[in-house]
């Protein structure tokens, strides 16, 4: 029975979105997880990138208990979160032409790696150029975005294209334009965004698929364990040592 209070309404909306991505994006999630597994098996490295609040879902799979040790955060100064002051600078940097090229030129990304790019709208210059330039390097790109933006907004990149147009695989978060699930007559603007919940779930579903796919192939997936369980630190030390040449967050 649906809850008529805002909290219940939001949770219902989030559950509905999660069900939609489970049912409608299953093949894409499987393909993305398989791509990650292929990359690990072939000696490649894994990277995730997101700007602003999209960075939350990227950070959620890096150095994470229960996650793949090989997932690295590709950082762009000023857009990793809302800690930059003023916070509006981060939004402005997403629209700067050439920033992605400068970041990739100084990053460890190389041919044979995989990069997950998270951008809700997929319309700004930074994620579009990041995908275009990464693929030019021979990097496989997975985009996590809301495809609805491509039909209801205009691109802010000179090409007129969106993130979804430059990916090997696209995961559609199904988030409506504006990223707000609730409206009330007494509240002047839509509110209660669900993009972080859904995008993080897609990221975890993808990495879970990668781990299981590696195991099916007889390869122990390089997983991290919680440091708060007995033996966790020792386990992680072994994994980090074994894969140290493909991990960049501990240097």
The low-confidence parts are none
Which CATH-level-2 architecture? Answer: 3-Layer(aba) Sandwich
The total count of strands amounts to 5
Rg, alpha carbons: 18 Å
Number of helices: 9
Mean pLDDT: 95
Main β-sheet, spatial strand arrangement:
2-1-3-4-5
Category from helices, strands and their pairing: alpha/beta
Query: Could you tell me the strand content as a percent range?
Result: 5-15%
* Helix content percent band: 40-55%
CATH topology label: Rossmann fold
Shape: globular
State the end-to-end CA separation. 51 Å
Total domains, how many? 1
Largest sheet: 5 strands, parallel
Would you identify the CATH H-level superfamily? Glucose-6-phosphate isomerase like protein, domain 1
CATH first level: Alpha Beta
GO molecular function, one term: carbohydrate derivative binding
InterPro entries: RpiR-like_SIS, SIS_dom, SIS_dom_sf, SIS_GmhA/DiaA_subfam, UPF0309
Family: Belongs to the UPF0309 family.
Protein name: UPF0309 protein G3I46_36105
